[in-house]
Amino acid sequence: MVLPGRPADLLGRRAECALFDRWQDAVKAGRGGALVVVGEPGIGKSALLDHMAWTAVGFHVVRAAGVEAEAELPFGGLHQVCAPFLATLEHMPGPQQDALAAAFGLRTGTAPDRLMLSLAVLGLLSEAAARQPLICVIDDAQWLDPGSAQALTFVAHRVGAEPLGLVFATRRAGGGLRGLQEVVLTGLGPGDARALLHSALHVPLDEVVVERIAAEARGSPLALLELPRTMTAAGFAGGFGPTDTAAVPGRIEESFRSRVLRLPAATRMLLLVAAAEPTGDAALLWRAAARLGIGGSAAAAAEADGLLSIGTRVVFRHPLVRSAVYHAVPPSQRRAAHRALADVTGPSEPDRRAWHRAQAAVGFDEEAAAELEGSAHRALARGGIAAAGAFLERSVALTADPAARAERALRAARAKQQAGAYDSALGLLTLADRGPENELRAANSELLRGQIAFARSFGGGAAPVLLRAARRFESIDASRARDVYLQALAAALLAGRLGDECRIAEIARSARRVPAAPVPRASDLLLDGLTLLIVEGRGAAVPVLRRAVSAFTTEELAPEEELYWLWLAGHGAGLLWDDEAWRLLATRLLRSCEVRGAISILPVAAATRAGLHLLGGELLQAASLAETAADVTCMTGAGPVAYAEVGLAVFRGRDDEALAAIRTATRDSMARGEGMALTYLQWAGAVLHNGACRYEQALESARLACSDSSIQRIRNWALAELVEAAVRTGHQDQADEALGELCGTTGPCSSHWAAGVEAHCRALLAVGPDAEDLYRTALGRLERTGLRAAVARVHLLYGEWLRRERRHLEARDQLRRAHEMFVRFGMDGFAERARSELSAAGEPTLRRRSRFGDQLTPQERRVAMLAAEGATNPEIASRLFISASTVDYHLRKVFRKLKVTTRTQLARLLRDGRPVPGVAERP
Q: What PANTHER family does its record include (predicted)?
């Protein structure tokens, strides 16, 4: 099927057209999705998009395009897509409504987080698609501004159960487009290439010439139509001579440039103004042309040559024409065009006017620089961090005063860092450091360098830089110095033994010298507690750490405090063996990330909460969060080592999967210098091997984890694994030593978790009635926590001890409980160990695995878990970054697969593995 009136454009594209037709049918049927059309300039991407739009009967089709000259302006592409639906904004949830309104400058308010804005776009488009099937077509996606690109690709990855489709055309499918279904366009075959070439020729040509043109075009449709225009008369006559081996897009652009340079001067200038102002506003073009003394007749020659058309909109024949025009003229003419456009751009578009004025500037121009700074502030208010960085970066080049130049460079670097453009940020910091001496600016510059190092690796490279920054702040602002010391300590703890372990003590000693806050904040208490632990030990630290953890769990915190410090406060709770506080802190952090759309922190929050689910035997909940962490890491390209993924595989006891995950994550943690992750992975290996009765391997993994001498709660867990493995392998001395160290961490703490772990480890080393008393104590204390996996393991250990004592009846009771719990949790490795012990105790048991969760896809599991927790469909949609209709679709499938009819039944099944009767209700 070809586009009426333009059949030649789709020669040789029958398969691609058929694919688009099938895709449209799927979208209309409520199975939305995204396609990416990939190919070099001139290969026919736009022709395919035209075909798709023409044949989309019954759809609302919205078209947008990225423009190279606008790639730094905030949300230009997104506005093109969303503008037709903004009238329905008031029907959206409040936070999403505010995010879109702020991004498009419809109202003032807090700058929207990128994730919240992306969710809002998904909600807006899904709502529009519910009224009429919707297809969004985005051409030249490689030139979308960063904010638009992130939001639209986010939507593309999450459309599913709605009549909504997105099609992107791009030169390369990198970034957020990676992973979407691709349609890769290559050159036309020889037959189709010759047919297209003949369709464009008005005179017969020698077949030698035809073959030469076809060969040089390399199957590019645009080249086949354009290259004949560049052939000389001699070439047409015989086709002999050297073949130009330049890249086809370059040849095409050179062809367009040659045609532009042959035009009259006034026409060239009119084309230049049109190329410099990509909005396509014809009225604006003519006002700027008049400013330059160019009359209406100047357009005739360009239109006659087919380079552009001017109606209500200005449309270039191809993006390469715009590029050719802009670069074909000297810089002085480009500046004149931008100056004219700045003069005629109205006050309603101050950012566009400031950008044109900056492009027109020669040398320093303080007025233009100040205008750009104003644009940056407006961009930040709208959430356009990348745009703010671009405005400020250009303002630096226009600033003459060294001090002002340095300050603007620092602000530009901060915006670039927040946008993830770390190399640009570091370059701007170099400029900032060249300014006149200023201690506050130098401290802020050092701090930003440390934050960039931390964001890049989560490892030890950040700690020394942040330490230097903290010391600089001591003489400027003691409160700020304490905050930066806490950042430095966090970086050093994450680096652990892969960093300079002496650095942790150095940071702690330096921080202790900073005057205490008159009214300590939660973060001040946390810094004091952690540094006391390092410098003076647990006795001095535990009371202060308790106050810090209590403050974080009970006090109202600023958003920045929650996002920056809740994970570290959770680390403090873990050091106190306080599982209840850790759970509260981890849940609060996760909810804070979801509500505020803090996408950069979300993988850490999800992995932390997943860890608690694992210890609680809630593997399905952990799997849901592991998948969330992986999704966001994939979207952003940044995140911590895959803690949740590894932990899930280990607790499931699936050897091949777990060992592969540990190997991959170990390589990653070593490369990044993330020592805390390495300790976690070695502890995870010890758990895996203990579960499978491979005690020698468990002992080695636990030894490695315990070799980390930094203050790691994970090391404390590894001590318990070391006790079990050492006892089982007959290494009594190692077990005694590990128990002593473990008691040093549990003794000062009064939690049920600490007492339970200590009792069960003591039981492993005890004999006779003492061992039994200790096992019973361990069960009594651990059953008062939410750590059901630990309870099941003590039942297993107690049962194994009873069997060795030849008390088979009592052993069977303990082992049966352990086996049932492990099967229900999905901890297959430990379940098999319990089954074997139960059989040895005289109760043969069939091998069982908990499989009801395996019936579900990962997304269905996530929807099911949140529904079981009581979340509504809109709440689930917000937390999983999908639309409400997609939630409804998945939930219906979950009910059907698991044979339940109510959310109550679903909750019981996911919690206990056993459905119960309930009253039928709609999902």
A: TESTICULAR SOLUBLE ADENYLYL CYCLASE (PTHR16305), TRANSCRIPTIONAL ACTIVATOR DOMAIN (PTHR16305:SF35)
Q: Could you report how far apart the first and last alpha carbons of the chain are, in Å?
A: 42
Tokens of 207: 């077949």
Q: pTM higher than 0.85, yes or no? A: no
Q: Is the dihedral of CA 517, 523, 528, 529 positive or negative?
A: positive
899-912: burial string, b at 16+ Cβ within 10 Å, e else? ebbbbbbbbbbbee
| Closest residue by Cα to residue 666 from 684, 688, 651, 690 | 684
- Other Cβ atoms less than 10 A from the Cβ of 185: the count is 22
Contact 732, 726 (CB under 8 A): yes
- pLDDT tens per residue, range 94-153: 777 878 887 777 766 566 667 778 888 988 998 898 889 999 999 988 888 888 888 898
DSSP 239: -
Residue 36 pairs with which residues in a beta bridge? 168, 182
Long-range contacts of 827-831 (CB under 8 A, 24+ apart): 827/617, 827/619, 827/651, 827/652, 827/653, 827/691, 827/789, 827/792, 828/652, 828/653, 828/654, 829/652, 829/653, 829/654, 829/655, 829/688, 829/691, 829/692, 830/653, 830/691, 830/792, 830/793, 830/796, 831/653
CB 626 within 8 A of CB 607: yes
Alpha helices in 555-601 (DSSP H): 559-575, 579-596
Report residue 566 as tokens: 């809740």
Length of the chain as a residue count: 923
Q: pLDDT tens for residues 419-463?
A: 778 888 999 999 999 999 999 999 999 999 998 888 777 666 889
- Pairing relationship of beta strands 308-310 and 314-316 according to DSSP bridges: antiparallel
Token pair for residue 81?
Answer: 């897509």
Sign of CA dihedral 857, 862, 868, 874: negative
Amino acid present at 601: I
CA atoms within 13 A on the CB side of 444: 20
Nearest to 111 by CA among 99, 119, 123, 121: 99
Outline where DSSP puts E strands in 338-453. Answer: none
Per DSSP bridges, beta strands 164-170 and 134-139 are: parallel
- The continuous run of DSSP H or E covering 137 comes out as strand 134-139
Tokens standing for residue 922: 């709609």
Rounded to 5 degrees, what are φ and ψ at 559? -55, -40
- The CA-atom distances, in angstroms, between 904 and each of 820, 868, 871, 889, 897 are 22, 7, 12, 19, 16
CA 99, 105, 110 angle in degrees (round to 5)?
Answer: 45
Handedness of CA 629, 632, 636, 637 (dihedral sign): positive
Question: DSSP string spanning 308-371?
Answer: EEESSBEEESSHHHHHHHHHHS-HHHHHHHHHHHHHHS-TT-HHHHHHHHHHH--S--HHHHHH
Q: Quick count: other Cβ atoms within 10 Å of Cβ 224? A: 30
d(CA 42, CA 250) in angstroms, rounded, equals: 11
Question: In whole angstroms, what is the distance from residue 889 CA to residue 885 CA?
Answer: 6
One-letter amino acid at 401 equals D
* Paired sense of beta strands 60-65 and 134-139, if any: parallel
Longest dimension (CA), the chain: 107
What are 309-335's pLDDT values in tens digits?
Answer: 888 888 887 777 888 888 888 999 999
Adjacency order of strands within the sheet including 134-139: 60-65, 134-139, 164-170, 33-38, 181-184
Would you call 229 helix, strand, or coil by DSSP? Answer: helix
- Are the CB atoms for 3 and 10 separated by under 8 Å? yes
Query: What is the torsional sign of CA 227, 230, 233, 238?
Result: negative
Secondary structure class of 64 (helix, strand, coil):
strand
Rounded CA-CA distance 414/419 in Å is: 9
pLDDT reported for residue 389: 84
Q: Measure CA 272 to chain center.
A: 39
